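Cont'd.
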Amino acid sequence: MPTSVNLAVIYYSATGTIAEIAKEMSVAAEKAGAEVRLRKVAELAPQSAVEQNPAWAANVRATVDISLAEPEDVRWADAVIFGSPTRFGNVSAQLKQFMDTLGPLYAQGLLADKVYSGFTSTGTNHGGHESTLIALYNSVHHFGGVIVAPGYTDPAKFADGNPYGTSHTDANGTQPVHDVTRASARVQAERVVRFARRIKAES
Ligand SMILES: Cc1cc2nc3c(=O)[nH]c(=O)nc-3n(C[C@H](O)[C@H](O)[C@H](O)COP(=O)(O)O)c2cc1C
């Protein structure tokens, strides 16, 4: 009987790109045998901003059934995959705000020894894929987490080209998540489950 793995996929997405990748990862992780909690973080933008952008409003409607992330989801998890769109080359404020609520768990040492990984999307080709993921991983070092990046460990990674994590360029909303990104997402999710299982089995 393989060791059970609890995986939380926790994301922020305004216009749906990151939400699509998060779903792809969740399904792949379930197929790999993990118990998965797919969670979105709370919106911080004013309702008026959401309503002025049809893609943003549509994504809110499409993801209404996805529960909001709670610190308890991170405490429960053996592995956490965080997803955020690039915001000026950095992690979105919404995901960062959620991470800041993890302080009490951090203070008790309850963020340590878990597996963490991340994914992102941008509007443009060189718009901050890597800087966003590295910024995300800064916090994981403070958690005492184990970063499981995908590297170039699968042919799919040579296609998407980002060893730090799955990333997608949405061409400012005109390029939906495609097969190259989906394949990379599956490879990353499976790898995270595999390493979380090994670490859990040996601890
Ligand atoms: C405030 C803001 C800042 C952004 N900064 C960048 C950026 O630095 N580089 C980039 O390529 N795209 C940037 N974008 C575009 C988004 O990161 C991109 O469209 C992303 O794929 C959206 O993901 P989502 O559909 O999950 O919300 C920015 C968008 C917003 C609203």
